[in-house]
Structure formats: structure tokens, C-alpha cells
């Protein structure tokens, strides 16, 4: 990079371990804060309005996931191209990609949110709303559909700020968003008594405030990001969509996962099962953000190294990331096995049947975290190294093809146990396919021997 941009020069000179940690910590904190937005909603709603309202918000959560999916689709796709230009020292092209991506994300969000609002009742039914949860689902969903563009703009903008060598500001933006969400949730639910609509409003307002913080990046002397004359290029949009598609599918998969598990639980255990799953799902949203954070941490340097043609640094970085992801998943499994009851208690006092089902679910479901993190990291690696088909396979198989097939099959023989085990088995099968693919590509050598 140019000497003026010292924030990115360390990518070439610092050790890979130092580069990884520099991006990992802000990315993890930022993503955890993003997950806090959903978890805080669950805690406040559960404590204030009870388990049925909590289940209703959980049914509507895929709408939030869809916003994140759209922002990552365009954000990761555009930022990968952006960082490639930075690595090749093409600043004019990089800035054009940034402006194009922000314009695209804003327009796309408004279009899709408008269509979803027109068919919101059918959408709620598809996501698993029943007679008990429908009022809460609609109250929460209506607010998200109207104001959710703030979520997509903030998330996409933060991806570019992180790729421009300022991961700390991206983290601060998300921390402020979470803090605002906590304060506003308390205000809207416990003081003003707005119900679940107030909880959704807290998310939207918090995102808008967090997005405004990101504009401080433009005041940095080392910043490369600049807005240029806006315009839409179909060719650039196609490339952005193609590269970012696995990230989009990963988030859509979260919505499919939530809807699939809700429907499976309704079928096998009724509202009790949906309430138990809603508790686990809030915890799961935190872990998803941890693993997405690991992928987000390696994406900027991987994209930069690809543009700068530094294949050896790409391989070294992916080795560290895979090891970290597996170790994290194993640690979380141990926490789930020993602290499941304490985790459930955080969300409130529930009926004994709901509580016991949630405790069992945590202990079984957490097995999947040993494999999930590695799958996310490898998906990001394939995505940034131009192997989009393999990245797409990982995202489609994990929470769509294999998960849905297992949800249809396992509960017939194992009941709710089969529901809980569907994701762990799905993640394991996908990881095996990744291992086989890499071994074949590298001629039977190391799993990280493959060049970009």
C-alpha cells in the first residue's frame, strides 16, 4: 500500500499471527455486539412479557437475519473486490466499488422490505407463527420491515470500514448499537410499555446511531474510503453478488434454520417445543456471530493478499483461523455440557417442561459447534480465493439441504432429540466434504496446502 495508508501497510510487514489478532478481536467483539441486539430483545421480552411473547419474537427473528444476509451479500462481495483493488494499489477503482456497494445495498433493502411488508401475514405464517404467537410476531415484524434499512446500511458500511484498516471503529459502532439497544429496550418495555414493538424499535434506532458513528472514519488521515459520484454498474453488481453470494446464503440459512426448527418443534412438541427452542436460538445467535466474526476477521487480509499475490500469507492465515475455530467450538461444547441450566435461567423462569427440554437441547445441539466454526472459516477462504462454488456448497448444505433432510428424517425415530441433533450431523457431514475437497485439490497433502 501507499505509505500514507499506514493502517494497511502492516498486512505485508507484520507476522500473520499479529495480523489475525488485530482483525479477530474487533471482529469478534463487533459481531457479539450484533448478536446482543437479538439476545437482549429475548431477555427483555421474556422477562417482561413471558414465554409466548418470547416465542413470537423468535418466529420473527428471521426477518432480522434477512437484513443481515442482504448487507453481507453486498458488503462482503463489494469489500472483497475493494480490498483486492487496495492490494493491487488501485485506489480510484476501490473507491468506486465502495460507493457502488452502499448505493446498491440501500436500494435493494428498500425494495425487498416493501415487498415483504405487502405479504407480511403470509410471511409470518411461513416462518412458523400460530394463533398464540401471531400478534407478537406482527408487532415485532412490522417495525423491522419499516425501519430495517438502518440495519443493512450500518452492517455493510462497517464491513468496508474494517476492510479499510479500521476494524476498531467498526467494533465501536456495533458496541454503541448494542448499548443503545439495551437502554432503549428497558425504556420502551418497562417504562413506556410499548410491548414487543418497542423491542424492535430499539434495534432499529440503535442501528441508526451505530451507522452515524462510522462516518468518523472519513476524518482519519490514513483512510482510503471516499464517496465518489454514485452510479450503478450491472457488471460490477453481478461480480459483487457472485462473490458475496455465499455470505448471503449463510445468513439466509439462519432464517431457514430458525423456521425449520420452529416448524419441527411445533410438529413434535407444540408451543412448549417452540418456547424451548427459542431459548436455545438466542444462545445460538451468539455463537453464529462468533464464527461469522472469525470469517469476517480473515476476509480483509485474505482479500488484500489475493490482490497483492501473497499466497503463502493466505495459507498461513487460514491455518491459524481453522485451529482457532475448532478450539473455540470445543470450549463452547464443554460450557454447554456443564452450564446448560444456568444458561436457560438467564432468559427467565419457565415451566418445568420447557426448561428441561431447553437444557437437553443445549447439551445435544452444542456438539455441532466443534465443526461449525471450521466450516465458516473455510467458506470465507473459498469465497475470497475465487472458489465460490465450494463456498456456496458449504452454505447451502449446512442449513438448507442436509439440515432440512435431517429434520424431516430424524424426528420420526428420535422425537425432539432428532431435532436437536440435525444441525450437529449436518455440520459434521459438510466438514467431511470440505476435507475431501481440499485433499483432492492439494493432491493428498495438507488441508491448507491449496493455493489461492
Automatic annotation (TrEMBL):
The keyword Endoplasmic reticulum does not apply. InterPro entries: MATE_fam (IPR002528), MATE_MepA-like (IPR045070), MATE_MepA_subfamily (IPR051327), MdtK-like (IPR048279). It holds the Pfam family MatE. One of its GO terms (molecular function) is xenobiotic transmembrane transporter activity. GO terms for biological process: response to antibiotic. Keywords: Antibiotic resistance, Cell membrane, Membrane, Transmembrane, Transmembrane helix, Transport. The keyword Metal-binding does not apply. The chain crosses the membrane at residues 20-40, 52-76, 97-120, 140-161, 168-188, 194-218, 239-261, 273-295, 316-337, 357-378, 390-413, 419-438. It is found in: Cell membrane. Signal peptide: none annotated. GO terms for cellular component: plasma membrane. It is a multi-pass membrane protein. Belongs to the multi antimicrobial extrusion (MATE) (TC 2.A.66.1) family. MepA subfamily. This is Multidrug export protein MepA.
Amino acid at each position: 500500500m501507499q505509505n500514507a495508508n499506514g493502517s494497511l501497510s502492516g498486512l505485508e510487514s507484520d507476522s500473520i499471527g499479529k495480523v489475525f489478532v488485530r482483525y479477530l478481536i474487533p471482529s469478534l467483539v463487533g459481531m457479539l455486539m450484533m448478536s446482543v441486539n437479538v439476545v437482549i430483545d429475548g431477555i427483555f421480552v421474556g422477562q417482561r412479557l413471558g414465554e409466548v411473547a418470547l416465542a413470537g419474537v423468535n418466529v420473527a427473528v428471521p426477518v432480522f437475519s434477512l437484513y443481515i444476509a442482504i448487507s453481507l451479500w453486498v458488503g462482503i462481495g463489494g469489500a472483497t473486490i475493494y480490498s483486492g483493488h487496495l492490494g493491487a494499489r488501485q485506489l480510484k477503482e476501490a473507491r468506486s466499488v465502495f460507493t457502488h456497494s452502499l448505493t446498491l445495498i440501500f436500494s435493494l433493502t428498500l425494495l425487498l422490505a416493501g415487498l415483504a411488508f405487502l405479504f407480511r401475514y403470509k410471511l409470518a405464517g411461513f416462518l412458523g407463527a400460530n394463533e398464540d404467537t401471531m400478534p407478537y410476531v406482527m408487532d415485532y415484524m412490522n417495525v423491522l420491515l419499516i425501519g430495517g434499512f438502518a440495519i443493512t446500511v450500518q452492517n455493510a458500511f462497517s464491513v468496508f470500514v474494517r476492510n479499510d484498516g479500521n476494524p476498531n471503529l467498526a467494533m465501536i459502532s456495533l458496541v454503541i448499537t448494542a448499548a443503545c439497544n439495551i437502554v432503549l429496550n428497558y425504556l420502551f418495555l418497562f417504562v413506556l410499555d410499548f410491548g414487543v414493538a418497542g423491542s424492535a424499535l430499539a434495534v432499529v434506532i440503535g442501528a441508526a446511531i451505530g451507522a452515524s458513528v462510522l462516518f468518523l472514519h472519513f476524518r482519519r488521515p490514513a483512510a482510503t474510503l471516499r464517496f465518489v459520484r454514485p452510479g450503478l454498474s450491472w457488471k460490477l453488481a453481478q461480480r459483487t453478488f457472485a462473490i458475496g453470494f455465499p455470505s448471503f446464503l449463510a445468513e439466509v440459512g439462519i432464517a431457514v434454520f430458525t423456521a425449520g426448527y420452529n416448524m419441527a418443534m411445533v410438529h413434535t412438541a407444540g408451543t412448549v417445543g417452540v418456547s424451548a427452542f427459542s431459548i436455545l436460538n438466542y444462545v445460538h445467535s451468539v455463537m453464529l456471530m462468533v464464527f461469522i466474526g472469525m470469517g469476517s476477521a480473515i476476509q480483509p487480509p485474505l482479500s488484500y493478499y489475493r490482490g497483492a499475490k501473497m499466497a503463502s500469507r493466505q495459507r498461513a492465515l487460514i491455518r491459524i483461523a481453522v485451529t482457532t475455530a475448532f478450539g473455540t467450538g470445543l470450549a463452547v461444547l464443554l460450557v454447554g455440557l456443564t452450564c446448560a441450566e444456568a444458561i436457560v435461567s438467564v432468559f427467565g423462569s419457565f415451566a418445568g417442561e420447557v426448561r428441561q427440554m431447553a437444557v437437553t437441547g443445549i447439551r445435544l445441539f452444542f456438539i455441532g459447534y466443534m465443526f461449525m466454526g471450521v466450516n465458516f472459516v473455510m467458506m470465507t477462504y473459498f469465497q475470497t480465493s475465487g472458489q465460490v462454488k465450494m463456498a456456496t456448497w458449504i452454505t447451502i448444505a449446512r442449513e438448507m439441504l442436509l439440515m432440512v433432510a435431517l429434520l424431516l428424517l430424524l424426528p420420526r425415530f428420535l422425537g425432539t432429540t432428532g431435532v436437536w441433533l440435525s444441525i450437529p450431523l449436518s455440520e459434521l457431514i459438510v466438514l467431511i466434504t470440505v476435507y475431501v475437497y481440499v485433499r483432492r485439490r492439494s493432491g493428498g497433502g495438507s488441508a491448507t496446502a491449496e493455493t489461492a
